[in-house]
Structure to design on (261 residues):
């Protein structure tokens, strides 16, 4: 019972965190990422030539698992804090946690909405999966590596990355030009919501106020922590990243078509 309490953090963790970029942090996240890549490659290549329904089953499972782990996390957090109000800092308003919504949308809808959701998952799921495991320095400074907080975070981030990589390898990615506005709308909607909620509850969703020990420190230092320029820089980084991703995709597509002709 004491072991379970210690793992789930009831009463607080008594173990000293191993720290950001410690060998324990890198080993654990390395194992998780390796498993994620292995499963995505195996299932993606296996299903590449199969029908859409078969391909989509994997996304359905990814949606069930990522939201299932998240719901379990919220239950643990609420019971640990003896308050539902504590969950106000666990809303899906980080770039990574948007996948809690977009993966199910990609799995359970059709048409343009499904295509745009898959595009979004691919664009930011892989990026968020890596940044939220290896780059989540603040978590590994705060909690032991083998503790619930870090393990559930690494699991959900890796599911996001898995879904994005699987979509590519299974041949489900479209990145259609006519769907770009939907992808952009999803991103901007969550950014605006994050900004509003940050103001209301004095929090740091989407890391728009401070880097909090994450790789966002690069942008923070670029503008010397300016409270106006920093969030603008973060949003611009999202846009530039998306533009580069789309450009590379279209370049590869063009070269393949030229080669085929």
């Amino acid at each position: 019972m004491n072991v379970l309490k210690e793992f789930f953090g009831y009463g607080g963790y008594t173990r000293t965190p191993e720290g950001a970029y410690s060998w324990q942090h890198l080993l654990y996240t390395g194992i998780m990422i390796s498993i994620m890549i292995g499963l995505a490659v195996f299932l993606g290549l296996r299903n590449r030539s199969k029908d859409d329904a078969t391909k989509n089953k994997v996304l359905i499972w990814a949606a069930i698992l990522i939201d299932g782990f998240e719901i379990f996390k919220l239950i643990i957090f609420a019971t640990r804090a003896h308050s539902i109000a504590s969950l106000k800092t666990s809303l899906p308003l980080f770039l990574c946690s948007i996948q809690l919504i977009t993966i199910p949308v990609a799995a359970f809808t059709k048409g343009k909405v499904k295509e745009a959701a898959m595009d979004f998952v691919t664009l930011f799921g892989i990026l968020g999966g890596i940044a939220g495991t290896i780059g989540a320095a603040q978590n590994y400074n705060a909690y032991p590596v083998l503790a619930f907080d870090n393990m559930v975070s690494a699991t959900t981030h890796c599911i996001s990355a898995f879904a994005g990589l699987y979509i590519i390898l299974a041949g489900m990615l479209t990145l259609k030009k006519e769907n770009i506005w939907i992808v952009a709308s999803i991103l901007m909607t969550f950014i605006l919501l994050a900004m509003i909620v940050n103001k209301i509850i004095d929090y740091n969703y989407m890391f728009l106020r401070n880097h909090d020990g994450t790789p966002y420190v690069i942008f923070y230092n670029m503008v010397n922590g300016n409270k106006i320029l920093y969030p603008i820089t973060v949003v611009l980084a999202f846009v530039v990243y998306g533009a580069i991703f789309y450009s590379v995709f279209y370049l590869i597509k063009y070269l393949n078509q030229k080669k085929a002709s």
Notes: The CA atoms of residues 87 and 100 lie 15 Å apart. The chain is about 70% helix and 0% strand. The mean pLDDT is 94. The radius of gyration is 19 Å.
